[in-house]
Design brief:
51 residues; single chain; 2 strands; two-stranded parallel sheet
Length: 51
C-alpha cells in the first residue's frame, strides 16, 4: 500500500467511512491512499421499460 494520509491526525474521530458508486474509489485509487474502516460500494444498473 502506498503512503496513507493522516486526515484524522489530532482529532478524536477515528472512523473513516466511504460511500461510492461503481467502484469509483478503487478506480481513482483512493483505497490506496486512504484507510477506510468501511466502504460502501453500490452498483447501478440501467434498464429500459416500455409501455
Amino acid at each position: 500500500m502506498s503512503k496513507s494520509y493522516k486526515i484524522f491526525e489530532g482529532s478524536d474521530r477515528k472512523l473513516l467511512i466511504g460511500i461510492c458508486f461503481q467502484s469509483m474509489f478503487e478506480v481513482c485509487k483512493w483505497t490506496e491512499k486512504l484507510e477506510f474502516d468501511y466502504l460502501f460500494d453500490a452498483n447501478i444498473s440501467a434498464s429500459l421499460k416500455e409501455k
